[in-house]
């Protein structure tokens, strides 16, 4: 902010709220700015499926509420406005909203269907004063429409999502639109979901922060399911602080999601903001797992950056234990051999049918849309002996692998480059956060991933925030036009 002007580009939640307080910005101006960016960039990037037609009205209402608060408090804003008051939030197109927006998983199959109520996380966003800005594009049906035939970031309703840094490269999936839109400043912050790598990978590939919380820390009620055993709702933002501010609002118990009962014990008193500590790396025990994640780095710039970042972790006071190995990691990373696919198929059949029954208006047969994974899933016979055996196998792989590693070396976090370690974290419902870590010779972004045991979000926040504040690697995508694609 300079003088009486306010720069919206790259502005954080805290800066936006400062702009509101100092009367340098209104929510209507903010929403109009993002709408203009979407009009200009979305035909190229295809990160947004649809915008809330009531966005401007909601912005005006937020401005009126803020002005009324000022008058009530003699010119000050007081403390009654919500944590995200006036902040536009873009939602992955699987997170249900009981308004004029559709919830379709990127598919025409669910276009026009109506959800009975807001998703649990949406209720929390509205209560915090956030503006539900629209729905982000994604890999259709979490890329589960076809396990082989759907490109990352493609869905029927929006087309192929485009990476704003290197348009020829993948934006990754399935929360691709959430990452694309935040990276390109088409919105302030967004929500995504992850089952296997769907927050961490697009965040990594689009130079933004992705925070996948412990399964059950955020409610999945009202979210189109994939595999409830592993599904989680998380945040995709440009900074660690924004990711934490957003997470702080959406966590908590929900009567419609039993997993939140157990996970709610992990929520610290006073929330997560207090862990935004610039000295957060001091005395943290960090385990570097090289095989096979470092070996898979083909870009020498990325390899050199990862080596340099390990040095920075040490310089900032972390205790780094290098060259650690996860037992049977190759089995974990091969979903057909470890049994994840069979579990996903069975869980998807059960959970999607339950979701569809709750809809006020819904299609009778998804198979009519040539989604052959649905046909395969429908052929499964529930959670039988094969699926139970696969669950036991995965639990043992997790216990004897990642969990043993963390406990044996008393680690606060595992550190890996890129998004390759997502399956290791997925099978146990563990949290992870990725932070921008650099750009390849071609400009392609890459990140560094910190993963921990259940409920370790406070430590991960301290580690990620301290790393981000020390390195400050992220930069906005280059300017481009449709003719440059």
UniProtKB/TrEMBL annotation:
List, as start-end ranges, the regions of compositional bias called Basic and acidic residues: 60-72
Origin: domain of life: Eukaryota
Q: Where do the Amidase domain residues begin and end?
A: 30-418
Q: Pfam families recorded for this chain?
A: Amidase
Residue span of region Disordered: 60-79
Q: Which PANTHER family match?
A: AMIDASE, AMIDASE C869.01
- This chain belongs to the protein called Amidase domain-containing protein
Q: Which organism is it from?
A: Cinchona calisaya
């Amino acid at each position: 902010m300079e003088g009486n002007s306010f720069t919206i580009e790259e502005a954080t939640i805290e800066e936006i709220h400062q702009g509101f307080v100092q009367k340098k910005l209104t929510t209507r101006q903010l929403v109009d700015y993002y709408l203009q960016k979407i009009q200009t960039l979305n035909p190229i990037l295809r990160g947004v499926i649809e915008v809330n037609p009531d966005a401007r009205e909601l912005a005006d209402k937020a401005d009126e509420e803020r002005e009324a608060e000022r008058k009530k408090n003699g010119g000050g804003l007081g403390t009654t406005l919500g944590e995200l008051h006036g902040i536009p939030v873009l939602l992955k197109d699987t997170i249900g909203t009981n308004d004029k927006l559709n919830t379709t998983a990127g598919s025409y199959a669910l276009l026009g269907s109506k959800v009975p109520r807001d998703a649990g996380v949406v209720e929390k966003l509205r209560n915090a004063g956030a503006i539900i800005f629209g729905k982000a594009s994604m890999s259709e049906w979490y890329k589960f429409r076809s396990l082989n035939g759907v490109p990352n970031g493609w869905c029927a309703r929006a087309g192929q999502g485009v990476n704003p840094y290197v348009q020829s490269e993948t934006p990754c999936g399935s929360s691709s639109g959430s990452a694309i839109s935040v990276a390109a400043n088409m919105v302030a912050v967004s929500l995504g979901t992850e089952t296997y790598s769907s927050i961490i990978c697009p965040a990594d590939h689009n130079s933004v922060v992705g925070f996948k919380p412990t399964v059950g820390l955020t409610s999945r009620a009202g979210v189109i399911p994939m595999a409830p055993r592993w599904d989680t709702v998380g945040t995709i933002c440009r900074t660690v602080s924004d990711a934490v501010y957003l997470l702080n609002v959406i966590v908590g118990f929900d009567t419609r999601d039993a997993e939140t009962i157990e996970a709610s014990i992990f929520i610290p008193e006073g929330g997560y903001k207090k862990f935004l500590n610039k000295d957060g790396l001091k005395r943290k025990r960090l385990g570097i797992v090289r095989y096979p994640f470092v070996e898979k780095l083909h870009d020498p710039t990325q390899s050199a950056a990862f080596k340099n970042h390990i040095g920075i972790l040490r310089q900032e006071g972390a205790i780094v234990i290098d060259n650690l190995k996860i037992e049977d990691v190759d089995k974990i990373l091969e979903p057909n051999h470890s049994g994840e696919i069979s579990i996903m198929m069975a869980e998807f059949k059960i959970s999607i049918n339950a979701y569809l029954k709750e809809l006020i208006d819904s299609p009778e047969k998804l198979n009519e849309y040539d989604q052959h994974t649905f046909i395969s899933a429908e052929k499964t016979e529930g959670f039988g002996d094969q699926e139970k055996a696969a669950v036991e196998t995965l639990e043992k792989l997790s216990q004897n692998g990642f969990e043993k590693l963390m406990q044996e070396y008393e680690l606060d976090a595992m550190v890996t480059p890129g998004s390759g370690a997502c399956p290791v974290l997925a099978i146990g419902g563990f949290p992870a956060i990725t932070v921008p870590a650099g750009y390849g010779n071609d400009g392609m972004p890459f990140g560094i991933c910190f993963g921990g045991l259940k409920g370790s979000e406070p430590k991960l926040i301290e580690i990620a925030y301290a790393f981000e504040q020390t390195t400050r690697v992220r930069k906005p995508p280059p300017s481009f036009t449709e003719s440059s694609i």
